[in-house]
Amino acid sequence: MNRVLAGDIGGTKTRLALVDVVGTRLLVGREISYPSRDFGTFDALLAEFLADAQVPAHAAFGIAGPVKGRSVRVTNLPWHIDADALQLRFGFKTCALLNDLEATACGLPALGADDVLTLQQGDPAACGNAAVIAAGTGLGEAGLYWDGRQHHPYATEGGHASFSPQNDLEMDLLRYLQQLHGHVSWERIVSGMGLPDLHNFLRGYRKSGVPPWLEEEMRADAAAAISRAALAGKDDICIETMDCFVRQYGAEAGNLALKTMSRGGLYLGGGIAPKILPLLQRDLFLPAFLNKGRMRPLLEAMPVRVILNDRVALFGPALRAGQNAAA
Q1: Are 79 and 185 found together in one domain?
Q2: Cβ contacts of residue 67 below 8 Å, gap of 6+?
Q3: The dihedral of CA 3, 312, 163, 256: what is its sign?
């Protein structure tokens, strides 16, 4: 058994934990979640977590941003994280940095049967590459290459690829978002930060004002208020917003599955999917996922599963740190 330090660093929150690792079995000990923007640097946050703890020899962190060598600039935070600097300051023997979706992919072996929900069974004998797509604060994507014996996770920045409209409404949505952002990526729509823009577009498109009760709720958390109203059936534009969101989620999930040839399955991670399961289970996500013309039979054979355990992005760094400890 090796005790390691694992972290899941996102634009909204950062979760740190001390974890005992035995193979793919994990026992999470001390765990704290911090609002990321309360800290000017990750070093300051980490110092607070370790202030009254015995520092483990091995650490690994999943980070929402492209890792270059042993450093990363967090996409939605003004943080620069350097593994060598962390080792020097805190005395780690090893310190690994992973893209957050690579971290999620690395954490899949630690999940149990109750940690996933199947949207599409696919071929019972499905085997091969796999992929993970995760809408949260942003939109992350990762692949898992199958070498015939095991999967090897790798990071991508596919969520920043260009959005592709498929009908007149979506063409107007593209133009609307171009005026706001210039380049329009899938993340500009399929993410927590994209939901308010999608909602505002549809308000204007349908010439419908925001009800006072919804306007009040949106001041605290616009994306959460929109999804709650849709799930409760309280507002037609919120319902249309979430329907559009789910269809675009399915469309881009299908794109990722084709590009990575994910015969071994596609996983939906991130914080949003478990909260909108009733919408994902309706006839919105899978039709959009499968709507790839001649490739439909290929996609129908791929298992599609939702990750229900929100610790998977913490499990991945823990397993990586455990592997480094055992090396």
Answers
A1: no
A2: 97, 98, 99, 102, 155
A3: positive
Give the pLDDT confidence of 279-326 residue by residue, as tens digits: 999 999 999 999 999 999 999 999 999 999 989 999 999 999 999 998
CA distance 315 to 282: 30
Spatial distance between the Cα atoms of 171 and 173, rounded to a whole number of angstroms:
5
The CA distance from 315 to 317, in Å, is 6
Could you give the number of structural domains in the chain? 2
Query: For residue 193, how far is the Cα from the chain centroid?
Result: 13
* Whole-structure pTM value: 0.92
Angstrom distance (rounded) from CA 234 to CA 211: 10
Residue 73's beta-bridge partner residues?
A: 80
Structure tokens at 214: 């919804």
Task: For residue 139, give the CATH number of its domain.
Answer: 3.40.367.20
On the 0-12 / 13-18 / 19+ scale of CB atoms within 10 A, 172 is middle
120 and 68 fall within a common domain: no
pLDDT digits (tens, 9 = 90+) for 93-135: 999 999 999 999 999 999 999 999 999 999 999 999 999 999 9
- Assess whether 99 and 169 both reside in one domain: no
Cα 105 from Cα 72, distance rounded (Å)? 19
Provide the domain limits for residue 266: 112-308
Shared domain for 224 and 285, answered yes or no, is yes
**Strand partners for 154:** 143
CB 74 within 8 A of CB 81: yes
- Same domain for 101 and 22, yes or no, is yes
